């Protein structure tokens, strides 16, 4: 197939037929004869060398390849509409900065990194999407986000051509409600054996590192809660359910925000944060502001 033979008309007719479920209804919607639409669909299938529909009674059902093609078609027309809107209203439309935030990244860190994007001279609308690393990589590939904030780089074996930008690192500190803090601060860390602990799941970098730290000291805490969402862990910690960890660089902020107290620092653990983008050199002004702020906030000494 020669890609230049594929045009918007083919994709438009295909998309409408897929949405309507029949050529007859699609012809009413497009104000074209069924023969015209049928001919264009046949041309498209011949060019792609694949069947996009199969008949189910009076309806046309998408094949697996057809469903995949529909996703691409909808994305193409969505991007086309966005392009027209941007070009026709370039002077009035706010620039958008879409950021994917891995759900293990502490919300306090995310906020501090994202805030500078809203302080630019050029008006900017910040869009934040939270999810797993895998889901966010899909968003990045589809150009739905400009950047991912994560606590780990993408693996070299991942079939995604993206770039890791190390933003910085910080130590990890342990916090608890005042009553728990007074009990466990006295003999930290030796007195943590059997202490109630709130922990990121062990398939996260933070969760694995914290448990490795405990095992190296032959300490066995009582894990009360395991979850990926850092905000939920903070909430459980504020309620006095158990001890929890957070970035050392934000010790004062976490104590003030959640009414908790510092127990101690987990010496030897460093938590790193990364920006992941499709660009080797970041050009988006909002993303530049975020990465610049990150390198001010996160340092090897924090």
Q: Can I get a quick summary?
A:
With 302 residues, this protein is α/β, with parallel strands linked by helices. The protein has helices at 8-20, 23-30, 34-48, 64-88, 107-114, 133-141, 178-184, 205-216, 230-238, 251-258, 285-297, and strands at 53-56, 59-62, 95-102, 124-131, 147-150, 163-176, 196-199, 222-226, 244-247, 261-277.
Describe this protein's structure:
The chain is built from eleven helices and ten strands. The chain has 302 residues and is an alpha/beta fold. Strands 4-3-5-10-6-9 form a six-stranded mixed beta sheet, with helices on both faces. Strands 1-2 form a two-stranded antiparallel sheet. Helix 8 (205-216) links the parallel strand 7 (196-199) and strand 8. Helix 1 crosses helix 3 and helix 1 (8-20) packs across helix 4. The longest helix has 25 residues, at 64-88. The N and C termini lie far apart (56 Å). The model has no long low-confidence stretch (mean pLDDT 85). Keywords: Activator, DNA-binding, Transcription, Transcription regulation.
Per the principal axes of the C-alpha atoms, what is the gross shape? elongated
How large is the count of helical segments?
11
Task: Please identify the structural class as seen in this structure.
Answer: alpha/beta
Determine Rg (CA atoms, Å): 26 Å
Quaternary status: single chain
- Number of DSSP strand runs: 10
Keywords: Activator, DNA-binding, Transcription, Transcription regulation
Domain HTH lysR-type: 6-63
Protein name: Transcriptional activator NhaR
Pfam families: HTH_1 (PF00126), LysR_substrate (PF03466)
